[in-house]
Write a structure and sequence with these properties.
Number of helices: 25
CATH class of the largest domain: Alpha Beta
CATH architecture of the largest domain: Alpha-Beta Horseshoe
Helix content: 25-40%
Radius of gyration: 26 Å
Largest sheet: 9 strands, mixed
Length: 637
């Protein structure tokens, strides 16, 4: 294997900066993740964009915040600004389980080691920089900053926090996927505009003195939401705020949002329109090495990189709008897709990787099968305020054709160096059920599904029904479980036709708002009847900027302001989670006693009865039913 020159990566050390012949840096990025130079890692994308605009850029990855702060000083002071990100995950979600237990590993660190970033990393890093270099502006971004840009509930402290701009002291925040605003910001600073004076760029947020007049830019209208102080006193006002923020985040012609915080005004400029195909290609076609920085070689593999190094991300965004999910809150509900040419170019790069053995692990995106899907008439999308394009029903204006995706699967399949290309991302199964999605006139969904099941399943296919209770699913913004049954039937028929045995792996969530304990017992019984012993299960975690987080904290739905019951105590949450494991001997007695206490012995029987006994009971039941039918027919005569 030929060693690549160190200058193929963005510099991490003073020595690497000097190797490029630089004696000063324009921008320094501080990241909570190890530096992996790959388009799936935000720090690499932002770094490469800054480089592409002609700036001298370096990265400080996972700096030590507990010593003499030498990591923050080693590259000196940048000419224009520091950029700060906690990494690819919110640092608190990265660190803690739903039960607030500290995790023992970190997928974005060499060797999977925990402890290389602080809690609330964006705030900690920014405060250090402001102390060391008070005259240098700090720009924050990434998912942690993005989803904490306004007053938000923090599950780990169990209280409302103001905008992360207020707590961190940063000069500006870029929310969402940052390529478009970042390029605008870079062009302005290159012209001599100080970063901390920029006010007219879309998709940024900043604080200004409450006494200062708001600037008039780009014909934006302004909507004011309840102040942070009012939210602290009134949970309903906080819930009502969320609806405004979510609606404005998903509009093409959005309003500017303002919120009072102490003696300041938080300003959130409207987002950019979703990136076009050409813009997406530019971002993905930057000169990534597609590998971790060589400095990590002796520290062990980086788990998140190992998982995606032979995968291809074909699109961004998700129009599902699920209540518990942050994808649409950060990436937007409109789909931004790459061109086929860009995707195939990446395939050509992957097959040259020295460790490539012929298998692509994922042709996907946030939801595997939303590639190139958009409104048939974009003027309708322009006026739309709905947070989801497929809940409660699929929008009649949504083009859900799977043909472009099927064609890419076939082309990747035909590549001479590719033995198999799998779909590892979760498939949005409801788009493939004709009873739910009426837009399958030409049968393209069936062609896609046949291609998927016969050519691209790596042993098991992941789907996410999330629950079986229709009431809970409505709160989740997910379709009725009956559509999962129909999908499973369709999936099983294709498998039988081709003599395949590739199990479905369904994902479920316990203790989600709107779910009661009996609903979880029923979920366990229904999935048992379908032959599942559940593996991919999780307890609900309230994360900032989601409908479910607002319900958890406020007790009401932000769109109706009507109360919704939620499991909140550790015991309530654990009780719900236990039902997932009905098949384990250590849970059987607890389940029997618990369901008798809930006055649901019927569910205890369904869950704890052996499969053999259940089959016998079914035969007896069918036999009794047949006898009753005969008697009925006899008396009719």
């Amino acid at each position: 294997m030929i060693e690549r020159p160190i200058t193929d990566w963005l510099p991490l050390t003073k020595k690497e900066v000097e190797k490029r012949g630089w004696d000063e840096l324009d921008v320094i990025l501080i990241s909570g993740d190890a530096y992996v130079d790959h388009p799936a890692f935000g720090t690499a994308v932002i770094g490469r964009i800054i480089e592409s605009e002609g700036f001298k850029i370096a990265i400080v990855a996972q700096p030590n915040w507990k010593d003499d702060l030498r990591d923050f000083k080693k590259l000196g002071k940048p000419k224009y600004f520091f950029g700060v990100t906690a990494g690819c995950m919110d640092s608190m979600v990265n660190h803690y389980t739903a039960n607030k237990r500290l995790r023992s590993n970190d997928s974005y660190t060499p060797g999977g080691e925990a402890g290389y970033r602080p809690d609330y990393a964006t705030t900690v890093y920014t405060k250090i920089l402001k102390e060391l270099y008070p005259d240098v502006p700090v720009l924050i971004g990434g998912i942690e900053a993005s989803l904490r840009r306004v007053t938000h509930y923090d599950y780990w402290q169990d209280k409302l926090l103001p905008s992360i701009l207020f707590d961190s002291g940063a000069d500006m925040l870029v929310y969402g996927m940052g390529e478009q605003p970042l390029r605008e910001i870079l062009r302005l600073v290159k012209q001599g505009v100080p970063l901390n004076t920029i006010r007219n760029v879309n998709q940024i947020s900043y604080l200004q003195p409450a006494s200062e007049a708001l600037g008039e830019f780009n014909n934006w209208d302004t909507v004011e939401i309840s102040s942070h102080e009012i939210c602290l006193q009134d949970k309903i006002k906080y819930a009502a705020n969320f609806k405004v923020v979510e609606v404005e985040s998903n509009k093409w012609q959005a309003n500017r949002i303002i919120q009072k915080v102490s003696d300041k005004i938080l300003v959130i400029n409207p987002p950019f329109k979703t990136m076009e195909e050409k813009e997406m290609d530019i971002s993905f076609d930057l000169p990534y090495t597609r590998m971790p920085h060589p400095k990590y070689k002796k520290r062990g593999p980086i788990p998140s990189y190992e998982m995606i190094k032979f995968s291809i991300n074909m699109h961004r965004g998700c129009f599902g709008g699920c209540s518990f999910c942050t994808i649409s809150a950060h990436q937007g509900k409109f789909i931004a897709s790459r061109s086929e040419k860009s995707i195939m170019k990446e395939v050509d790069q992957i097959v040259k990787h020295p460790e490539f053995k012929g298998y692509i692990s994922d042709l996907g995106g946030p939801s595997a099968n939303m590639y190139q899907m958009k409104g048939k008439d974009e003027s309708i999308c322009n006026r739309c305020q709905s947070p989801s394009c497929i809940h409660p029903v699929i929008c009649s204006n949504l083009d859900t054709s799977h043909t472009p995706l099927t064609e890419i699967y076939k082309k990747v399949d035909a590549h001479p160096s590719v033995k198999k290309a799998f779909v590892g991302s979760g498939v949005r199964y409801d788009l493939l059920v004709d009873d739910f999605n009426k837009n399958n006139q030409d049968g393209n969904h069936d062609i896609y599904m046949e291609q998927l099941v016969t050519r691209h399943v790596s042993g098991r296919l992941k789907v996410a029904p999330e629950h079986t209770s229709d009431a809970t699913l409505r709160v989740m913004r997910k379709p009725s479980f009956k559509y999962f049954r129909k999908f499973k039937e369709k999936y099983d028929n294709i498998q039988a036709k081709h003599n395949l045995k590739q199990p479905l792996i369904p994902y479920f969530i316990s203790s989600h708002p709107g779910c009661e304990e009996a609903d979880m017992a029923n979920l366990a019984a229904e999935t048992k009847d379908l032959g599942f012993q559940l593996e991919q299960v999780q307890d609900f975690t309230p994360t900032p900027m989601t409908v479910a987080e607002v319900i958890y904290y406020s007790g009401v739905h932000p769109y109706t302001l009507l109360p919704i019951k939620t499991a909140k105590t550790k015991e309530e949450k654990q009780n719900q989670n236990n039902y997932f494991f009905w098949y384990k001997p250590e849970f059987k007695d607890w389940i029997r006693k618990r369901l008798h206490k809930l006055n649901r012995p019927d569910l205890a029987d369904r869950l704890l009865k052996s499969q053999k006994q259940a089959a016998i009971d079914k035969i007896i039941g069918e036999s009794e039913s047949a006898k009753a039918k005969k008697r009925k027919n006899y008396f009719k005569r």
